[in-house]
Amino acid sequence: MRIKQQIAHWEEKQVEVAQPKLSPELQAEIRAHMKTQNMEEKRAAVNGDIRACSAVLSGPNFLSGLDERQMDIIKLTAHEKWAPEQTASLRESQRCLQQALSH
């Protein structure tokens, strides 16, 4: 189904924009710092610095002191902040898929 290909495409584009490549050392340093922060501080850091966003999203949630639900929240807000056009296109593709499945 073409719509599913579009969804996969926009998900990849979100990652490309919101998760620029960082050195493993910088990622580890950022995650170690993030692990000491409370949820609001983590969210502010991810929304304020794309490097923090990349480090958090590119690793397992526990390395940044997040549970799965918190990681989902961080991911959603980060994609809206750093990849708004890709996120809007993804949502539109998902909406089209829902419409196609409901008919």
Characterize the structure shown.
The chain is mainly α. The chain has one domain. Helix content is 79%, strand content 0%. It has six helices and no strands. It has helices at residues 2-18, 24-35, 39-48, 50-57, 68-82, 84-102. Helix 1 (2-18) packs across helix 5 and helix 3 runs parallel beside helix 5. The longest helix has 19 residues, at 84-102. The mean pLDDT is 94.
Which terms would index this structure?
about 100 residues, 6 helices, mainly alpha
Count of individual beta strands: 0
How many helical stretches? 6
- Coarse shape: elongated
Question: Which structural category fits the helices and strands?
Answer: mainly alpha
| Average predicted confidence as pLDDT | 94
Weakly predicted, low-confidence segments: none
Radius of gyration: 15 Å
Order of helices and strands: HHHHHH
The proportion of residues in beta strands is under 5%
Q: Give the terminus-to-terminus CA distance.
A: 15 Å
Largest sheet: none
> What number of structural domains do the residues give?
1
What proportion of the residues is helical, as a percent range? Answer: over 70%
